[in-house]
Design brief:
Elements (H helix, E strand, L loop, with lengths): L4 E4 L3 H7 L3 E4 L3 H5 L7 E2 L18 E4 L4 H12 L5 E5 L9
Parallel strand pairs: 1-5, 2-3, 2-4, 4-5
Length: 99
Amino acid sequence: MTQIKSIDAEDALDYIHINECFLIDVRSAEEFSQGAIEGAVNIPLFELHLRADEIPVNREIVVYCTHGVRSGKAAHLLLGDGFAKVGHISGGLDEMDLY
């Protein structure tokens, strides 16, 4: 059974880099424009199903949002859509020391 990997906010940037993950920011376009993790692609939660063809199937996917709630939902949706390796940053941007 495939499970969602919960990635600790403190370790997230290293994890994403080392594993060459495809990083998705599931916040709104407005939130994304106010600052995001470098290299992230903005696909808001409500657009995931519509834009699934933009997500590579051969890489681990990591999703994030502000607090970790939307990214948790997004990770479940991605698993349901058949993506096998999915993780989310627990605690979201609020728990990360980016600036």
